[in-house]
Amino acid sequence: MSPRVLRRVSAITALSAVALAVTAGPALAHVTVNPRTAEQGSWSKVSFRVPNERDDASTTKVVIELPADHPIASVSVRPTPGWTVKADETRLAVPLKVHDGEITTAVTKITWSGGRIGPGEFQEFDVSLGPLPTDTGQLVFKADQTYSGGEVVHWNEEPRADGTEPEHPAPVLELTGPGKPVTTARVTPAAGPSVTVDASDGTARALGGIGLAAGLVGLLLAGLALTRSRRNT
């Protein structure tokens, strides 16, 4: 292969790597809640996805704050192997009315500790919530991520009015009205609950990255074929 062809191959390969990094990066850039939307008044299972962004440290503790201004009557946590979980309750200034009365306390913070998320890894922590509030269009879950070196990253910035993403965005669950399309894992609070899970945003981005990679490989092969054809003429 001639030096000219080698230079073309190197350039296309570098372009492929950069494109894939740009495409895949945001999917694991910060703590997120998945799915991203749920129906008001429903019971839903959500997963808090926590990526480890440090090359020289592991994530050892994760704290998720539930919005106290929109309390949720029932909060249950799925056990995560290797992690200890603790749910803190807060007394409500105004009791929350439910179908069989009212509650005066609600879970406002969940802490996972004792486990490790290594460099290049992520962990998902599952929580069942319900019924979701009907008086707001979103729930903002502020999060703290503690690393083995003592560093604490606060994912606590709320969505901006202009739509741009802040540097340390908090996980946000968008709430839609009844009958509107949602991408949610819905949980029915009864014996033998049925659960429906739709593809998450992370999966969609991963598939997009694969498609981009395939296109770039095709471009590389076409360039090589064109170069070889010119040499033979």
UniProtKB/TrEMBL annotation:
TM annotation in the entry: 206-227
Domain of life from the UniProt record: Bacteria
Secretion signal, residue range per the UniProt entry: 1-29
Keyword Repeat: no
Ranges of residues in domain YncI copper-binding: 30-175
InterPro entries per UniProt: YcnI-copper_dom (IPR012533), YcnI-like_sf (IPR038507)
Name of a matching Pfam family: DUF1775
Keyword field: Membrane, Signal, Transmembrane, Transmembrane helix
Name of the molecule in the record: Uncharacterized protein YcnI
